[in-house]
Design a protein that fits this description.
The protein has 391 residues and is an alpha+beta fold. It has one domain: Cathepsin B, Chain A. It contains 10 helices and 10 strands. Strands 1, 2, 3, 4, 5, 6, 7, 8, 9 and 10 form a 10-stranded mixed beta sheet that branches. A hairpin with a 5-residue loop joins strand 7 and strand 8. Helix 1 crosses helix 3 and helix 2 runs antiparallel to helix 5. The protein is globular, with a radius of gyration of 20 Å. The relative contact order is 0.24.
Length: 391
């Protein structure tokens, strides 16, 4: 999937299913690091997107769940909300099919999407609890969506190539028929209306930091999974990082979208900006980006990181060494034994790695490899809000 943001709603982008880049053995190992938590905010349980390119949905729903926990002051984890990812995915598939046909197939039609997609679905259709809609009607306990993706793509391509001189009014029913078969019909009586969620879906703003567009303006990031064309606000790198820190320090989490094709992003829960290249894998979404479970990281001591500047960040984006790979949920700050700053990141690959589904992402990795973020506007420093004209 990839990334983007909603306007006025400005959500942030994200990806997770694309062609993997080559990656060597991981150059870092958790045994070389000892972390101390500085700030940690409430999150819901670790989920597993398995064989689906839906990290954009898992990460954004996790973010919204934390927003609801904060807004309602929920203390008991047993009372935490748990929304259905596949409900959002199903709604987004339908909307995407409509737009794909309207554009004569001149846009990307795949599983990947962005933060703004989740917000648009939630605002238009509401959400539903996981217990009321699993979206898995095809014989698996976890998402395995290769066949569904292929079936939908084949169908909409057939509609686009229709030899008739005009389209019928019934072709959208075929999209719903495929979705009903694979994901199940939606129990309309279980859908939670947007205004009943306990949060204002217009409060969320997406941010990025690149120099090919003017600062303090919003633009739709140029990634193929930004199919809703939702924009992100562009701010200088120091302000971009200040937004993240201000959010966490004031009790707000962050939806994160960025590049995980770096070898320094390991399957054992570390994300450190090491200057190495990567190796192709296949299978699950986790294997695609960080290798198979039986690939053990090389036993090396802690490494020195690349120091990121605004110019280097732009170069990585322009050269496509920073790519739109994955979406996750940033919810805390930690330091290693040397005092180096890290962020606590909730992933959607199940309870895997040294930290059971949690990643420690270094500050330099965040600076260099984040494409965009989504935050509550209340979490943004007021001087930055003023610069972009939001109250």
């Amino acid at each position: 999937m990839k990334k983007i943001v909603a306007f006025a709603v400005l959500a942030g982008l994200t990806v997770c299913a694309a062609v993997a880049q080559p990656r060597p053995a991981a150059p870092v190992d958790p045994k070389d690091y000892q972390f101390t938590t500085v700030k940690e905010l409430p999150i819901t349980s670790i989920k597993n997107q398995n064989r689906s390119g839906t990290c954009w949905c898992f990460s954004t729903l996790s973010f919204l769940e934390s927003e609801i926990i904060k807004a309602k002051g929920i203390k008991d984890p047993a009372q935490y909300p748990d929304f259905s990812e596949m409900y959002v995915v199903r709604r987004a598939y339908y909307d995407r099919a409509i737009k794909y046909v309207r554009l004569d197939g001149k846009m990307n039609f795949a599983a990947g999407s962005d933060f703004g997609d989740v917000l648009e679905v939630a605002k238009t259709y509401g959400l539903i609890y996981q217990n009321d809609y699993s979206g898995l009607q095809y014989g698996y306990d976890l998402p395995v969506q290769g066949e569904l993706d292929a079936a939908l793509k084949g169908y909409v391509d057939g509609v686009v190539k229709n030899p008739n001189r005009k389209l019928t009014k019934v072709w959208p029913k075929g999209v719903n028929g495929i979705l009903d078969a694979y994901m199940g019909e939606i129990p309309q009586d279980k859908v939670i209306a947007p205004d009943a969620l306990g949060i204002n879906l217009d409060d969320y703003i997406g941010f990025t930091s690149y120099t090919h567009h003017p600062f303090y303006t919003a633009f739709a990031m140029e990634v193929e999974d930004n199919w809703r064309w939702t924009p992100s606000w562009n701010v200088p790198l120091d302000e971009f990082m200040a937004i993240i820190d201000n959010a966490v320090n004031n009790g707000y989490t962050v939806a994160w979208g960025g590049d995980v094709s770096e070898a320094g992003f390991t399957r054992n829960g570390l994300a450190i900006l090491v200057d190495t290249e990567a190796k192709p894998t296949s299978g699950s979404d986790q294997e695609r980006w960080v290798g198979k479970a039986d690939e053990k990281p090389a036993e090396k001591p802690a490494v020195k990181e690349i120091q990121v500047t605004q110019e280097l960040r732009q170069d990585m984006y322009d050269e496509k060494t920073s790519t739109d790979d994955h979406g996750m949920h940033l919810y805390g700050i930690a330091k290693d034994q040397n005092g180096v700053k890290y962020y606590l990141i909730k992933n959607s690959w199940g309870e895997t790695g040294a930290y059971k589904g949690i990643w420690y992402m270094s500050e330099n990795f965040v600076k260099g490899k984040t494409l965009n973020i989504l935050v509550n506007k209340k979490a943004v420093p007021k001087d930055i809000l003023k610069k972009i004209g939001i109250k």
